[in-house]
From TrEMBL:
One of its GO terms (molecular function) is metal ion binding. InterPro entries: AIR12_DOMON, Cyt_b561/ferric_Rdtase_TM, DOMON_domain, UCP037471. CDD domains: Cyt_b561_FRRS1_like (cd08760), DOMON_CIL1_like (cd09629). Keywords: Electron transport, Iron, Membrane, Metal-binding, Signal, Transmembrane, Transmembrane helix, Transport. Heme b binds at residues 199, 235, 268, 304. Coiled coil: none annotated. It is found in: Membrane. The chain crosses the membrane at residues 200-218, 230-251, 271-288, 309-328, 334-359. Residues 37-151 form the DOMON domain. This is Cytochrome b561 and DOMON domain-containing protein.
Length: 379
């Protein structure tokens, strides 16, 4: 329970954008996970010069689409927005252009109301990035109205075609405080980060902690005759609860995966799916186990133990992969490392202890016993 509380308190992990890296280790002072369209904004502000450098990151609606980030000095929304739009030209190279959007009609390239320099864009792994530095219109200005968007196609003449009119496309706007990083509008800004953190907590608790503890219960508790059959029920209920929490965490992961169009964490996803299959087999196998003493019980034990250890190893590996993706501040990763190595240390001591007891018992009954050398592991 402490462990669960501990992980819940870690729910205030950093936003996902904190883990995004740029060429030459270029750093920006702030970043936010924008509340719509899987987009991110990084920026640094030079208040003295009135300059703001930004990186806008978003997956275009299709690989031939476009992404856009804009400031609207006169209002909210599309009309009036001073836009930077990135897309792939027919020759395959990324282009970024400025558009002074004065109506809902076809967009026309043109100068913006403020100066923009260092514009460039990239397309990688399904995600487009726009880099630019712009001048703030007023001295001392710290809040802007931002509008961002993604679309599915660009005409031959390089005119970004109309975007979808889904709630996400209509809600992708609001004010941005360049100093504090506070945003308004655009729906619930934290909902995705929150769900990613919940996903992380559920899975770290189940695959990363409860499953290993359940295995330890089975392996070490049964050395004591007095713990029979309590260990079995404890093991079973721990693993079944771990499985229930794990499946919930797995489901949230699939949902997050299906929502993040451009960004794919293939390894994390594949390991997660494998884990789900192995753990499900494990639960099914529980009900199909041959009776103690049955010929096949020995084989079932090997299968059950092998599969169980695979789940533990992959589970811990995937918690670390997930921590990399979520990139919370280092203390959370460190905390998980401490928890899992403490479990490892306890397991090591108990392992030694188990073998000592095993050899003691063996020497006590050397004359009559034909023990199969399984260190008391057979039930
Ligand atoms: C942008 O468009 C508006 C409305 O058509 C116009 O008033 C403004 O002068 C334009 N800005 C520039 C820099 O061309």
């Amino acid at each position: 329970m402490t462990v669960i509380l501990f992980f819940i308190s870690s729910a205030h992990a950093q936003p996902a954008c904190a883990g995004q890296k740029f060429e030459n280790n270029k750093r920006y002072d702030r970043c936010i996970d924008l509340p719509q369209l899987d987009s991110y904004l990084h920026w640094s502000i030079d208040s003295a010069k009135g300059l703001v450098s930004i990186v806008f990151i978003a997956p275009p609606a299709t690989p031939d689409g476009w992404v856009s980030w804009a400031i609207n000095p006169t209002g909210e929304g599309m009309v009036g927005s001073q836009s930077l739009i990135g897309y792939r030209a027919p020759n395959g190279l990324m282009v970024v252009d400025t558009y002074n959007v004065s109506s809902y009609g076809p967009l026309v390239k043109g100068k913006l109301d403020f100066g923009v320099t260092d514009m460039r864009s990239e397309y990688e792994d399904g995600v487009m990035r726009i880099f630019a530095t712009f001048e703030l219109l007023e001295k001392g200005q710290t809040t802007v109205n931002q509008v961002w968007q993604v679309g599915g196609s660009v005409t031959e003449k390089g005119v970004p075609a109309r975007h979808d009119l889904q709630p996400a496309n209509l809600g992708s706007k609001g004010s941005l405080d360049l100093l504090s990083g506070e945003i308004s509008g655009g729906g619930n800004g934290n909902s995705k980060t929150k769900r990613r953190n919940i996903h992380g907590i559920l899975n770290a608790v189940s695959w990363g902690v409860l499953f290993p503890v359940g295995v330890m219960v089975a392996r070490y508790l049964r050395t004591f005759p007095a713990a029979d059959p309590a260990w079995f029920y404890l093991h079973g209920s721990l693993q079944v609860s771990a499985y229930a929490i794990g499946v919930a965490g797995w489901g949230t992961g699939l949902k997050l995966g299906s929502e993040s169009k451009g960004v794919k964490y293939t390894d994390h996803r594949n390991i997660g799916i494998t884990l789900f299959c192995l753990a499900t087999l494990q639960v099914i196998a529980l009900f199909l186990r041959p009776k103690i003493g049955h010929k096949l019980r020995f084989i079932w034990n090997i299968y059950h133990h092998g599969n169980g250890y695979a789940v533990i190893a992959l589970g811990i590996l995937n918690v670390f992969k997930g921590l990399e993706i979520l990139s919370p501040s280092n203390k959370w990763k460190l905390s998980y490392i401490i928890i899992i190595s403490s479990l490892g240390a306890i397991a090591f001591v108990l392992e030694v202890f188990t073998w000592i007891i095993f050899f003691k018992r063996k020497s006590l009954k050397t004359t009559k016993s034909d023990d199969n050398g399984d260190a008391g592991r057979h039930t």
